[in-house]
């Protein structure tokens, strides 16, 4: 059994699985990073991912187009993020309550729409998901080829999104506005930046990424919708934002770590150890918590996170 | 002046906050190429009026004309578009970002999709050279002293090429030398046809820099004077409605036993460098020791380590002969230390809590403020209402959130809290920063009263006049060390000034 672990196929498979399992977390983590950098904690993430998973699935089954499914998943993510913006940015309600409310609401809504569409089938309907795309030449390299360059298109896209997000945040005008709004909205306001609009746009962009992250689970790496398909990956992404200290590169690294543990536990289950499989399911979450304890003491939160912005409040 | 057309004309401006009328039908004009000062007691409505002009506060009544054209300013963006810039009473900077990022936000130059940091940086350096505001654009703001941060604020406004510049107490945190620089900058600006509104409580500054002075009281304009036709005495009288005594009546006292002993204290700053080096200082009962020095020479680190919010690397601090636990603010309070921090918003107050909650913050378990674990609000109201009256804190009530108070009134809340507990030692950092002349006089009297009662007071101040009027003994801090010491009777301002610039003798 143990010897299996050191075989080439095992390692190739593990790297491949790591990258696959990390993909939805990368999407959601990047989405949460841009949102929190603007000063809004979006705890609706878990629900938005679930709605993305459900919407992507139904859109694909009805249209026959997987890419249309992805698009719709992004769309529903944006709509739910707008709702979050309305509650927490414009009405200034507690971000915790608004976010959790959206997650609860989305969980119910996802199941409701699914039932409305399919009734209660004994065998859940399935679709034919995306196929992996082998990159010519690169995929022929031993070990690296099949593990890195025979992935889903969405996984490749997630890799491109990581540096893009970093560039957006650190090198562009809009990124500077987002960061300032999240650190000191008063300062942003006094130089003419529209605080609430910037926060709303960040939420919406983040919502799209979360929605796509959810759809990955039902139409890319999976072919059916189940109510527990997201399985806490939204919460894991929140943890990864802290783990990565609100930096896209470090956050993605955290996502890869989780992907690795997730891939590993799947493989370990397959090796036939005589223990309940739930124990394996536990591993990535447990280690995520441990990793978080290690780094989060040095975490530097965006200063205005959780604080709605209102004019006319500051004295002096 | 009559024949000139004003660049800004505000007509019967009214601004009301709940039940406070901050501006009652104010008429105010600003002309091209002039510096106009706004004077007024704490809470008179200066900041409010300027925030209205900056589009930050919505009007409750009145009209604003800019360059003859009626405008409707619904946000700072509208005001910025009309060429108005404002330097706020409290910093509007992001400490975790670089100086450059703080300056260009909202006015950025782009090269393709990306920010053009290079040309923006060059522009900032050029502006800095032109106006004597030299600062490295690449350093993070949190590493800067308050004086340097003020320069960043000024650069931020200049970078936008404003025609009308509003400065709300820009000199409160500047050293005398920096103030001279700032005035040069302002003179250069008005020479180019720009107009400046200058707010300050320091009357000599107002006399020096402005062409015209407008005095506000209780939300209305009470007087307007050409600077050449008035004097400090008249201005003080116009502001507070009575004569300000120029000389405090201070008794000579013989210092008693030591109440605060600092032995070989060394403290690191944020950058990990020694900001206080092996410092020794004793403050006695019935004594005020003035610690003069240009800010950034370790005063912040010294006071913070005494307060217990910054742990020293070595050394001992004793209050009444007993060692104070390191890095333990509660211990410092329990041993009878009154602490007046230099940053009233960050360390002095909780802006979301009410005035009375801020007042009892350090003593909420004592003085019968609680019984069986529950707050005794009657007692708290009674106690804070008395302090609000004594210190003339302008607030709509003791249960109003601190953030609605004017800058000077925030300072008074801290003073009231710290001096009400009969402290045996008081560490006061810039205690009268941002206070009007009347309030300043009251605080000076209170500090002397505390001394006469038996407290030992360490007064950290950049204001030499203040140090000289209050202190029994003056020490000068330079680069973390005490470079000179003199009795206040024997010290000369020239000597202290030399020590402050690092000249040993
Ligand atoms: N946002 C606000 N909410 C409620 N009241 C406010 C607010 N801002 C100011 N006030 C009140 O309006 C009055 C005028 O305040 P303002 O800040 O204009 O005074 P100021 O002249 O600038 O005083 P200072 O010299 O102390 O800075 C004060 O009584 C203050 O308590
Ligand atoms: Mg003010």
How would you portray this structure in words?
The complex is a heterodimer of chains A (316) and B (505). Chain A has 316 residues and is mainly α. Chain A has a domain at 23-230 and 302-310. The longest helix of chain A is centred in the N-terminal third of the chain and has 30 residues, at 8-37. Chain A has a two-stranded antiparallel ribbon. Chain A is 69% helix and 1% strand. With 505 residues, chain B is of the alpha/beta class. Chain B has two domains: 8-240, 3-Layer(aba) Sandwich (Rossmann fold), CATH 3.40.50.300; 258-500, P-loop containing nucleotide triphosphate hydrolases (Rossmann fold). In chain B, 33% of the residues lie in helices and 27% in strands. In chain B, a hairpin with a 2-residue loop joins strand 7 and strand 8 (114-115). The chains are: A mainly alpha (316), B alpha/beta (505). Chains A and B meet through helix 7 and helix 8 of A and helix 2, helix 3, strand 8 and helix 14 of B. The structure holds adenosine-5'-triphosphate and magnesium ion. The site of magnesium ion (MG) has 6 residues of chain B, from helix 1.
């Amino acid at each position: 059994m143990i010897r299996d672990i050191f075989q080439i196929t095992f390692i190739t498979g593990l790297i491949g699985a790591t990258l696959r399992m990390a993909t939805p977390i990368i999407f959601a983590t990047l989405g949460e990073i841009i949102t929190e950098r603007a000063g809004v904690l979006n705890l609706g993430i878990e629900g938005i991912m679930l709605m993305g998973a459900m919407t992507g699935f139904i859109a694909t089954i009805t249209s026959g187009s997987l890419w249309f499914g992805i698009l719709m998943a992004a769309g529903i993510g944006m709509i739910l993020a707008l709702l979050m913006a309305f509650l927490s940015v414009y009405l200034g309600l507690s971000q915790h309550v608004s976010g959790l409310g959206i997650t609860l609401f989305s969980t119910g809504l996802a199941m409701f729409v699914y039932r409305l569409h399919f009734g209660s089938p004994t065998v859940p309907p399935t679709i034919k998901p995306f196929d992996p795309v082998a990159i010519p030449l690169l995929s022929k390299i031993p070990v690296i080829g099949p593990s890195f360059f025979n992935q889903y298109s969405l996984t490749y896209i997630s890799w491109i999104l990581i540096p893009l997000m970093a560039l957006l945040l650190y090198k562009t005008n809009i990124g500077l506005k987002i960061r300032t709004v999240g650190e000191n909205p008063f300062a942003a306001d006094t130089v003419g930046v529209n605080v609430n609009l910037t926060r709303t746009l960040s939420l919406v962009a983040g919502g799209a990424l979360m929605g796509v992250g959810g759809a990955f689970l039902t139409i890319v790496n999976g072919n059916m919708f189940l109510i527990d398909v997201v399985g806490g990956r939204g919460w894991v992404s929140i943890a990864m934002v802290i783990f990565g200290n609100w930096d896209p590169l470090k956050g993605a690294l955290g996502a890869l770590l989780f992907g690795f543990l997730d891939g590993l536990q799947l493989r370990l289950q397959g090796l036939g150890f005589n223990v309940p499989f739930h124990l394996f399911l536990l591993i990535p979450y447990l280690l995520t918590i441990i990793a978080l304890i290690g780094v989060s003491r040095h975490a530097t939160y965006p200063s205005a996170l959780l604080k709605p912005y209102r004019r006319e409040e500051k004295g002096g | 002046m009559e024949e000139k057309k004003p660049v800004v004309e505000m007509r019967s401006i009214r601004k009301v906050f709940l039940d406070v009328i901050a501006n009652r039908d104010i008429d105010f004009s600003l002309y091209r190429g002039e510096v106009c000062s706004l004077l007024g007691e704490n809470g008179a409505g200066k900041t409010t009026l300027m925030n209205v002009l900056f589009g930050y506060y919505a009007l409750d009544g009145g009209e604003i004309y800019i360059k003859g054209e009626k405008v409707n300013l619904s946000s700072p963006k509208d005001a910025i578009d009309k060429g108005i810039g404002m330097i706020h009473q409290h910093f509007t900077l992001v400490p975790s970002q670089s100086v450059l990022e703080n300056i260009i936000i909202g006015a950025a130059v782009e090269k393709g999709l990306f920010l053009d940091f290079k040309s923006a940086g060059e522009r900032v350096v050029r502006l800095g050279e032109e106006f004597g505001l030299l600062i490295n654009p690449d350093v993070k703001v949190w590493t800067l002293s308050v004086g340097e941060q003020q320069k960043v604020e000024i650069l931020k406004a200049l970078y936008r090429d404003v025609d009308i510049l509003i400065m709300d107490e820009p000199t409160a945190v500047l050293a005398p030398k920096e103030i001279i620089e700032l005035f040069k900058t302002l003179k250069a600006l008005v020479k180019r046809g720009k107009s400046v509104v200058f707010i300050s409580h320091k009357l000599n500054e107002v006399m020096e820099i402005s062409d015209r002075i407008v005095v506000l009281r209780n939300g209305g304009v009470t007087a307007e004077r050409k600077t050449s036709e008035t004097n400090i005495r008249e201005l003080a009288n116009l502001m507070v409605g009575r004569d300000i005594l120029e000389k405090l009546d201070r008794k000579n006292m013989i210092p008693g036993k030591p109440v605060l002993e600092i032995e070989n204290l060394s403290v690191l700053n944020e950058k990990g460098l020694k900001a206080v080096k092996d410092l020794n200082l004793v403050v006695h009962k019935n004594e005020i020791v003035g610690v003069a020095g240009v800010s950034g020479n370790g005063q912040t680190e010294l006071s913070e380590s005494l307060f217990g919010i910054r742990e020293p690397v070595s050394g001992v601090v004793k209050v009444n002969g007993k060692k104070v636990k390191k890095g333990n603010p509660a211990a410092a309070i329990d041993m009878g230390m009154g602490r007046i921090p230099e940053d009233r918003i960050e360390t002095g107050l909780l802006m979301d809590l009410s005035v009375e909650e801020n007042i009892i913050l350090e003593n909420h378990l004592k003085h019968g403020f609680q019984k069986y674990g529950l707050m005794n609000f009657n007692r708290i109201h009674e106690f804070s209402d008395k302090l609000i009256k004594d210190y003339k804190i302008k607030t709509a009530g003791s249960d109003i959130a601190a953030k609605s108070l004017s800058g000077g009134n925030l300072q008074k809340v801290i003073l009231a809290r710290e001096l009400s507990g009969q402290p045996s030692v008081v560490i006061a950092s810039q205690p009268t920063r941002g206070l009007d002349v009347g309030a300043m006089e009251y605080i000076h009297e209170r500090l002397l009263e505390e001394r006469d009662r038996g407290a030992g007071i360490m007064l950290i101040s950049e204001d030499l006049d203040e140090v000289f009027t209050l202190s029994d003994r003056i020490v000068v801090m330079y680069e973390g060390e005490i470079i000179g010491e003199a009795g206040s009777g024997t010290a000369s301002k020239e000597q202290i000034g030399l020590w402050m610039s690092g000249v040993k003798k």
